[in-house]
Automatic annotation (TrEMBL):
PROSITE patterns recorded: HTH_CROC1
Cellular component, GO annotation: cytosol
Protein name per Swiss-Prot or TrEMBL: DNA-binding protein
Organism: Streptomyces nanshensis
Database matches in InterPro entries: Cro/C1-type_HTH, Lambda_DNA-bd_dom_sf, TransReg_Diox_bact_type
A matching Pfam family: HTH_3
A GO molecular-function annotation: DNA binding
Chain intervals with Basic and acidic residues compositional bias: 9-25
Superkingdom of this protein's organism: Bacteria
Keywords: DNA-binding
Length: 111
């Protein structure tokens, strides 16, 4: 097998997850989840027309903490998730499986 075929085969294996250590796959999944959560917070905040400072005030946090959350640099705890859902006037839905993570803030309806 010449070098170009070997390189192509290696790239194909990487694309299908073969040859990647389990730890690397787990880290990749953690990063995807953090990014999905960060995007959900950002999208809901923008939908409401709020600044990071507004959300921080509503949640009893600092603007810097909201910035870290939206930058996928913070690992939220369950109490923090509850505070954010309240601050964003929404319910939080998180669906996890091996291939995909979905994080969605669902607007609360007026009763």
């Amino acid at each position: 097998m010449n070098h170009s075929r070997w390189k192509l085969k290696r790239e194909q294996e990487r694309g299908t997850g073969h040859g990647e250590p389990a730890e690397a796959r787990a880290q990749r999944a953690d990063i995807r989840l953090a990014m999905a959560f960060a995007k959900a917070v950002y999208d809901r905040r923008k939908e409401l027309g709020l600044s990071q400072s507004d959300v921080a005030e509503r949640a009893g946090l600092t603007q810097a903490k909201i910035s870290r959350i939206e930058g996928a640099d913070a690992v939220p705890t369950l109490p923090l998730l509850r505070r954010l859902a309240g601050a964003l006037d929404a319910s939080l839905s998180i669906a996890l499986d091996e291939e995909q993570e979905e994080v969605v803030f669902v607007a609360r309806t007026a009763a």
